Amino acid sequence: MRSLAEPGAGAAQPRHRVPGHALDSAGYVTAGATAPARAAVRARRPHPNGNLRMSAISREEVSHLAALARIELSDTELDTLAGQLDVILGAVATVQSLAGDDVPATSHPMPLTNVTRPDVVRPGLDAGQALSGAPEAEQHRFRVPRILEED
Amino acid sequence: MSGADTGTGTELTRRDAADLAGLLAAGEVSAVEVTRAHLDRIAAVDPAVHAFLHVAGEQALADAAAVDQDRAAGEPLPALAGVPIAVKDVMTTRGMPTTCGSRMLDGWIPPYDATVVERLRERRLVLLGKTNMDEFAMGSSTEHSAFGPTRNPWDTERIPGGSGGGSAAAVAAYQAPLATGTDTGGSIRQPAAVTGTVGVKPTYGAVSRYGLVALASSLDQAGPCARTVLDAALLHEAMAGYDPRDSTSLTGPVPPVVAAARSGDVAGVRIGIVRELGGEGYQPGVRAAFEAAVDLLVKAGAEVVEVSCPSFTAALAAYYLILPSEASSNLAKFDAMRYGLRVYPEGVVAPTAEQVMAATRAAGFGDEVKRRIILGTYALSSGYYDAYYGSAQKVRTLIQRDFAAAFEIADVLVSPTAPTTAFPLGAKLDDPLAMYLNDVATIPANLAGVPGMSLPSGLAAEDGLPAGLQIHAPAGADDRLYRVGAVLEGLLRDSWGGPLLDRAPDLPGPAGVGARSDAGPVVPATTAGGQR
């Protein structure tokens, strides 16, 4: 299985539509798409800093990602998703060109550290409540499919 | 309003929550009458609107009767006691199904209430049922609901916005005076804009996320949906407040939003018009309504300044990396083991847990959810992490800085809420990127954590559909939204000769429905799964 850490795979394939072009049937929305669409076009060019170039996401990569995400996908879904994800990634790649190394990352809107509470006993769910939505239960436990491969 | 026959159901469903609270407190109507009127309205129009996934008719009437009993006994009751409310199906409700618009949770009845729901029950609001939404709150049209789309009460061939289209449509169609929403990238504000209603995303952390099915934890925020700014403030106050069960919950007092909604003064308030939100690409009628509304604020004594937030143009891109990344992690909990759907793969003898998981997620998730989980998995992959997720987080910093700089010279920022009015159902379903563009003006607030409100700005001349105006305030200054919003609402209503919703066409349904306040069938409890 091919690693996802292979940047640039398929970067030369010019088969992708520009996102904004798909919007013309919806009247005024066409214009709404222009800014991101232009940005997407920019993103197709090699990045001046020489880091990740925009690449097509291949069907095989989507298949690998789906396996990582534990989602079984049909052949049709793989085909559709590969095309759609490629368009979306083309549009969102603009983030790479905006923030330089001097800009710190923000993971959370509010700066919060070390939120604690007193360690006291409080009522929680009883076993019956906790199991009330279980697909299968047995002896007050979740019953699950086997977790080991046969050998 | 004066002299109106308060006893008829139709009249009751047209009343705002503040009016209903007054009538109930004065003993002019009973909570059962009010509740029955809304249940009748739901029975009459929801076949056309499909705002609800579940209607809890019997429980609602029982809860209303209990309020009436306590009132008759002279017990002190909270301000909104007996006022009906609809709850977005993203919030867990004890004894009521919670599906989040997904087959994955079809029929799930949570064993606990979300903190928001608990607070509503404590304040004795009457829960009418659960509203439709895009699956796991991913979407801008409710077309991604596994149980069929909600329709816009202004034109049932058009989208009501999303993800909280059910809550917005329920309020716009007079099925409930109030509803709850959650807003991760605009899911309260954009539906409000396209349905001619009011919706508020409070400051991040203002309302507890405990018991909300998480989409993107650093962006999600619950808030009120209503028909008036004052009603939104009343519900905001009821929902907000510190909760030790949410580690991101704000500890300070709730800003004085109700007082702000009643203040009626914007003299000297500095209104910043965001250059990057509202220019090219926005529908002319949306822009015209926005500009006319700003003119009214100027006449009322507000100062207008233009501000520039250059990083906002990258907000959409950053959002569609951060959101899928967080969502792919949050939705890993749907593993077919502890709750929700379990599907065994076909033709596999003694399948492994992993195979069951993959088969379940294939069957239980819709296309948009799969798309975003895969996108997030990609953005978090080693080798791509810095280029995508890391860069997006830096853009988030730049957006916060833009807001901070803008609030140096303006007290609030305004823009159109959404680039267009409601589009036809199906118009963007096959083009994810086009769908994402609906949230271009609402996303910056989520990335920065600041509060935002959408209120009706008028009807777009070219299609006669409602447009929304958005107000932003600094984090923690939610009251400014209500101060400016309420004044603008009053000025606009004067210019229109009444609420914008008065111009919405009548919905199909039995004539005179809701005219009975003391008879008629009780809406039976239905579930999302049972409806189709």
Please provide a written account of the structure.
- The complex is a heterodimer of chains A (151) and B (532).
- With 151 residues, chain A is mainly alpha-helical.
- Chain A has 6 helices and 2 strands, in the order ααααααββ.
- In chain A, strand 1 and strand 2 form a beta hairpin.
- Chain B is of the alpha/beta class and 532 residues long.
- Chain B contains 17 helices and 11 strands.
- Chain B has an 8-stranded mixed beta sheet with strand order 4-6-5-10-11-9-7-8, with helices on both faces. A 3-stranded mixed beta sheet of chain B has the order 1-3-2, with helices on both faces.
- In chain B, strand 10 and strand 11 form a beta hairpin.
- In chain B, helix 9 runs parallel beside helix 17, helix 11 crosses helix 13 and helix 11 crosses helix 14.
Summarize this structure briefly.
The complex is a heterodimer of chains A (151) and B (532). Chain A is an all-alpha fold and 151 residues long. Chain A has 6 helices and 2 strands.
> Strand fraction band of chain B?
5-15%
For the biggest sheet of chain B, the summary is: 8 strands, mixed
Beginning-to-end CA distance, first to last residue of chain B: 40 Å
Strand arrangement, major sheet of chain B:
4-6-5-10-11-9-7-8
- Quaternary status: heterodimer
Radius of gyration of chain A: 23 Å
What is the residue-averaged pLDDT of chain B? 93
Shape of chain A: flat
Largest interface: A-B, 76 and 92 residues
Order of helices and strands of chain A: HHHHHHEE
Count the E strands of chain B: 11
Number of strands of chain A: 2
Q: Secondary-structure element sequence of chain B?
A: HHHEHEHEHEHEEHHEHEHHHHEHHEEH
Helix content of chain B: 25-40%
Mean pLDDT of chain A: 70
Q: Work out the strand percent of chain A.
A: under 5%
Radius of gyration computed on alpha carbons of chain B: 22 Å
User: Could you name the ranges of chain A where pLDDT drops below 50 across 5 or more consecutive residues?
Assistant: 1-54
